[in-house]
Structure formats: structure tokens, C-alpha cells
């Protein structure tokens, strides 16, 4: 697993420097890099650096079945979450505070990072995609 | 030449043992493990008469008595911690900022000293309006804490803030502009069996808490000898 991660890192670095890299890939790398910072500053306190969550207090994000509904994830980042939820079969019941300080772009970067790091996506969730979703679930 | 060769030879022959002497000297001189942890806080000189002579002694700041309620609903006073080394901290269950980090770190301390009955942990909520006994119980359960080694206490808000600032030497105050409505220090305070403060650590970092765990071992060793 470590070896695989190392290989991926090397590949990522090589591809980042190669001239024939697509514009989409450059954008993805940029979103992920920014997304890591947004995550560390706004989410990692509770959900931890590797997205593993904390005991039965805060649910994991990494490999979480909650990621299946991306629209719900986008909305709960901005507007928070109240009441009991079940993640990977385990109950959690602690409010998540809303994060109104995050701009649409920052939410997009964060979502891109989360889904590339802990789900199986290798694409950008762009800000243009995010804005209408956030608009719809505005409370 | 023959004159010079002798000291050189002496050095060459005895190099390993000389090196050893040097290392011992160094570790003797500045080895922290031999030293006792300092007693922190204010101290005052108290002069009293003993056998007709006046004797001056320094009296160290210590944690006064208090009266709070634990996650099990029973009263916790300074006597509950008699004959214990304990780590105190201040937090609140709905805190979105540094508290989760502190709890991850304090959980490491809990796991490491689980089988040491002389060590206790005392977490004070600074949001007693919200953090009732049942809220604290649920929090402790969710964190995976059982038994009475780690007590989560609530009580009168002002008394908690006062003991934090005046006795444990850390910040705790309500601040509506802060996330969660209160600001507090991320410190862990190490208290010995005489209720003296022996160390204050950054409870939000792994390095700070590694140091705390080393110092708990040193403090435990003090009571063994």
C-alpha cells in the first residue's frame, strides 16, 4: 500500500511537470492542493488529518458511505448538520457547525480533495457545478 | 619523538574508556531524568516558630478545594483526587476548534496510563449550561471512556472559570465572538499528589503530549523512591 502510494506520488509529480499535461489535470491538482488546506483549517480538528473521524464522536469521511450522496455532502459543509446520522452502519449524533466562511470555490476545492482522496474519483468538482447546488439547499 | 609518542599512545589506548567517562559526565551534568520536575506557580516565604526558633519555609501554590459534578452525577472534590497524580484540562463538548484535538491527545494519555491507579484525568467543561451530566456522560461514552479514571466535570460557571485562571493558571472565559461562544487554553496541567502544579503542556500537539507522558512517568518515579 505504501509502495503504491509512493508510486502515485512520483507519478503525480512527473505528470505535474510534464508539458503535455491536460488543462483539466492541472486544474484538478490545483483544486486538491487548495482543498488540503481548506480541510486542515476547517475540518481536521474533528474529522482528523486522515479523515478517520474520532471514536463514536465524529464520523469518518474516508471510505464513508455518506459520500455516496455528493449533493448532501456539499450542502452539509456550508449549512451544517443536526440530528442523528448513520455512517458505515454506526450511529452518530453530534451537530456539525455550518461553515459559512467558506466560499463556493473553497467548498468546491474541499469536495474535490475529499472525493479524490477518500472516494474513488479522479475528477474536479468545479465551482460552477457547486454554486447551483448550494443555492438550492440554502436555508 | 619518544617523549611525544607516550601521551598520544595513552590517548589511543584509552580512547573508548575516556569517551565513556565523557559521556557519563555529560549525562550526569544535564541529564533531565535525574532532576525533579519544577513546582510552578507562586510561592511565598512563611516564617513560623519551631521549637522556639523562627524557621522560614517556602509555601507553594496549590489547587484549593472545589466542588463539581462528574459524568456519573456524583460530587467530585479535591479529596476525590487525594493521593493521585492528575492531568486537568478545560473544554466543552460542542467546541468546534481545539477541543477535539485535545481529546484525541488526552485519550492517548488515558490509554497509556489505564492500568496505573495513581493517575487520573479531570476534564472541566467551560460551558456548563449546555454540558449537563447526561451530555458529559454521552460524550465520555462516545469517546470510549469508561470507569472513574477520567472524570468529566461540570458545575457553577464562575467557579470553573475562577479555578482555571487562579489555580490552574490557564485561560477560560466566555466570548460570544469566538466559535462555540467561549475561549479557553489548550493546555494540559499536571498536578502532583500534594496538589502542586508540576507542568503545563500544549494539549493540541502530539509533541506537547509526548512530553506530558514522559513527565507523568518521572512524577510517578518520584513517589516510588
Model description:
Chain A: Residues 1-21 form the signal peptide. Chain A: It comes from Spirosoma validum. Chain A: This is Cytochrome c. The complex is a heterodimer of chains A (139) and B (225). Chain A has helices spanning 2-17, 23-42, 44-47, 70-79, 104-118, 127-136, and strands at residues 85-87, 90-92. Chain A has 139 residues and is mainly alpha-helical. Chain A has a two-stranded antiparallel ribbon with strand order 1-2. Chain A is globular, with a radius of gyration of 16 Å. The model of chain A has no long low-confidence stretch (mean pLDDT 91). In chain B, 33% of the residues are buried. In chain B, strands 7-6-5-10-11 form a five-stranded mixed sheet. In chain B, strand 1 and strand 2 form a beta hairpin. Chains A and B meet through loops of A and helix 2 and helix 3 of B.
How many separate helices of chain B?
Answer: 5
User: What is the rounded Rg of chain A?
Assistant: 16 Å
CATH topology type of chain B: Glutaredoxin
Oligomeric state as shown: heterodimer
CATH architectural label of chain A: Orthogonal Bundle
CATH class of chain B: Alpha Beta
CATH uppermost class of chain A:
Mainly Alpha
Secondary-structure element series of chain A? HHHHEEHH
